Known about the structure:
This protein is mainly alpha-helical and 79 residues long. It has two helices and no strands. The longest helix has 40 residues. It is elongated, with a radius of gyration of 20 Å.
Amino acid sequence: xxxxxxxxxxxxxxxxxxxxxxxxxxxWNCIFPILKIGLAxxxxxxxxxxxxxxxxxxxxxxxxxxxGVEIRQERPRRR
Length: 79
């Protein structure tokens, strides 16, 4: 019975580590970049604010990170 309990405790600890790592990755790859965009868009002077094109590009990268898709190459821009 003690061996079984030991393995259950190990599995639970590993699951908690995985959950913690996932949350940490989510924060660094999704939440913090969105906050950074918000701060960049709320600069006092309009000329210092982030352009909407850059906002859209950054949000697209955040969406890809959220979905777990690695972006290797950007698509060419439409004109």
